[in-house]
Automatic annotation (TrEMBL):
InterPro entries to which the protein is assigned, alphabetical: AAA+_ATPase, ABC_transporter-like_ATP-bd, ABC_transporter-like_CS, P-loop_NTPase
Molecular-function annotations in GO: ATP binding; ATP hydrolysis activity
Domain annotation ABC transporter: ranges: 6-238
Keyword check for Glycoprotein: no
Entries under Pfam families matching the protein: ABC_tran
Protein name: Molybdate ABC transporter substrate-binding protein
Signal peptide: none
UniProt keyword terms in alphabetical order: ATP-binding, Nucleotide-binding, Transport
Keyword Ribosomal protein: no
Species: Corynebacterium lactis RW2-5
């Protein structure tokens, strides 16, 4: 499957007059799963929001298959890209299936409601995140992890070739962390996710971009990028990569490093 090419050229994002990320030049399109990592406040969410076209850059440009995002109409952009924000919370009173149906809006005419195809997408998305049994409940009656999965289901129902996920595994138990990343991969979409767990990055992602102080500090294959030296320099922890008895390479955090 050919992945769409999302690119950022000389991107700068400012918030309240302060430059948060600067001189970002990135191209996405070769690897299905890309992780964006960095310490709190490094600029990951700011970058993702600019890539999603939610916040306009102060300078530079984001392009989708060579076309400036700013010139793509919102409905088309919503068909091209689904975005799950870091702190997205479904409205308390809304039924779970109605919230997931919001992912189908880019395909509907005003007040047309769900078609049979829309309902199929909603049902499939809820099945994939393991929440089909609570489809008729109100979102307010869900646990934190279930709410997170409902937001992911909304994005999956959107059926777009690019999935931008800001901390998709937040609030999820260990099994659902694995299953959400697996279903993101199985969706066939180009996935770009900000994520804190470096071991999940090692085992689920093809590429990792390390953001440090609003700039790209490293970019490449996780096992090659997330060396002990880089992890110490960027995250200020001691880490080690090791091979499990099942043959997978993991990254363990040993301890916090203090300045001498
Ligand atoms: N609405 C805002 N107003 C002012 N400053 C903001 C706002 N949103 C973000 N910032 C600042 O921008 C910087 C980058 O924030 P951003 O959320 O992009 O970082 P992040 O890498 O995603 O962090 P985290 O891992 O904590 O989610 C931080 O210094 C933050 O305080």
């Amino acid at each position: 499957m050919t992945l769409p090419v999302l690119s950022a050229a000389s991107l700068r994002c400012d918030i309240a007059g302060r430059t948060i990320v600067d001189d970002i030049n990135l191209k996405f399109g070769s690897e299905p799963m890309t992780a964006i990592v960095g310490v709190n406040g490094a600029g990951k969410s700011t970058l993702l929001r600019a890539l999603a076209g939610i916040d306009r850059p102060a300078a530079g440009e984001v392009r989708l298959d060579g076309v400036s995002l700013a010139s793509i109409p919102p409905r088309q952009r919503a068909r091209d890209m689904a975005f799950v924000a870091q702190n997205e919370v479904p409205p308390q009173e809304m039924r779970v299936s109605d919230f997931v149906s919001l992912g189908r809006l880019p395909y509907q005419r005003l007040f047309s409601g769900n078609s049979a195809e829309d309902n199929d997408h909603v049902e499939r998305a809820l099945e994939l995140v393991g929440l089909i049994d609570v489809a008729d409940r109100s979102c307010g009656a869900l646990s934190g992890g279930q709410r997170r999965r409902v937001c992911i289901a909304r994005a999956i129902a959107q059926d777009s070739p690019i999935l931008l996920l800001d901390e998709p595994t937040n609030h999820l138990d260990v099994r659902h962390q694995q299953s959400v990343l697996r279903l993101a991969k199985d969706s066939g979409a180009q996935v770009i996710a900000a994520i804190h767990d470096l071991d999940l990055v090692m085992n689920h992602f093809d590429r990792v971009i390390v953001i440090d102080g609003g700039a790209v500090a490293a970019d490449g294959v996780p096992s090659e990028v997330l060396t002990q030296e880089l992890v110490a320099g960027v995250f200020h922890v001691d880490s080690c990569q090791f091979c499990s008895p099942y043959g997978r390479t993991h990254l363990a955090i040993e301890r916090e490093l203090h300045a001498e």
